[in-house]
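Side project, low priority. Logging it here so it doesn't get lost.
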Amino acid sequence: MDSVSLILVLILTIIFPPIGVAMVAGCGPDLLINICLTILGYFPGHIHAFYVIYIYHERREALRRGVVSEPRAPGIYSERVQSGGQSYGTVTRM
């Protein structure tokens, strides 16, 4: 199911980059940055969106492998992306 959702997010990101960032990071600074980059130029918005999605899914896979703490990714302000979608509290094995 995870690969299907990743493909859906990537397709929506190709169409309009802020939609993909909103789906992964939620409403916050990363979305605002991506909207500004998309307004300034369509290509920079895509680069930022794909970077945010890559970091999110990379952290999510690291959690599945059991790696709990990784250094913060530069340029990412969403805690949801930094933690791979894991909330604060007990870390459970998926």
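Brief comment: The CA atoms of residues 3 and 94 lie 15 Å apart.
Revisit when time allows.
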